[in-house]
């Protein structure tokens, strides 16, 4: 499988380890990871600026963002602030930063931004994600103007839930390419 777009990988809280699908994709296809200064106690404004800094290095019309968990919220805030018309975004397992189950230590990610995103998006959700109820995930996707893809009982769609290489996810990403 080949991609003609510039794919920017944006991990969530804690980063994505080497066996996480984001890291596998990055290595397999030479995607570009947006690095953050602090993966464990993130500040939303800092994460937004790091996305913008990487986006400015490329032709925006060719960029697809691939966010996981907290990165989905970050992408929504980035879009609200910069309104850049990119090719699209794949938003996987958006976490609900307003939920009681959400880990403490993040700054500026509440409330979850519910602005319509100015580019095509696909939001992939699970029915049993500890970090977001299915109903809230549906609300986020609807508010963002996103196509919703429900992959069933898949946890947080991460390594702990059994998602390493995740070929199905690559197929979904290819729809935006």
UniProtKB/TrEMBL annotation:
Quote one Gene Ontology molecular function term: hydrolase activity
Q: Which domain of life is it from?
A: Bacteria
Its protein name is Alpha/beta hydrolase
Q: Which species is listed as the source? A: Mucilaginibacter frigoritolerans
């Amino acid at each position: 499988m080949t991609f003609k777009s510039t794919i920017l990988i944006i991990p969530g809280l804690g980063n994505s380890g080497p066996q996480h699908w984001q890291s596998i994709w990055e290595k397999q296809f030479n995607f570009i990871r947006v690095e953050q200064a602090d993966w464990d106690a993130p500040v939303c404004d800092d994460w937004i600026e790091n996305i913008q800094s990487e986006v400015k290095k490329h032709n925006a019309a060719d960029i697809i963002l691939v966010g996981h968990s907290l990165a989905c919220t970050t992408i929504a805030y980035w879009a609200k602030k910069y309104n850049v018309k990119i090719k699209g975004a794949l938003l996987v397992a958006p976490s609900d930063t307003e939920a009681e189950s959400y880990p403490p230590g993040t700054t500026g990610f509440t409330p979850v931004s519910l602005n319509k995103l100015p580019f095509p998006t696909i939001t992939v959700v699970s029915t049993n994600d500890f970090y977001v109820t299915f109903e809230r995930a549906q609300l986020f996707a609807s508010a963002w103007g996103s196509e919703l893809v429900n992959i069933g009982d898949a946890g947080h769609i991460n390594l702990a839930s059994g998602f390493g290489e995740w070929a199905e996810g690559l197929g979904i990403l290819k729809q935006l390419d």
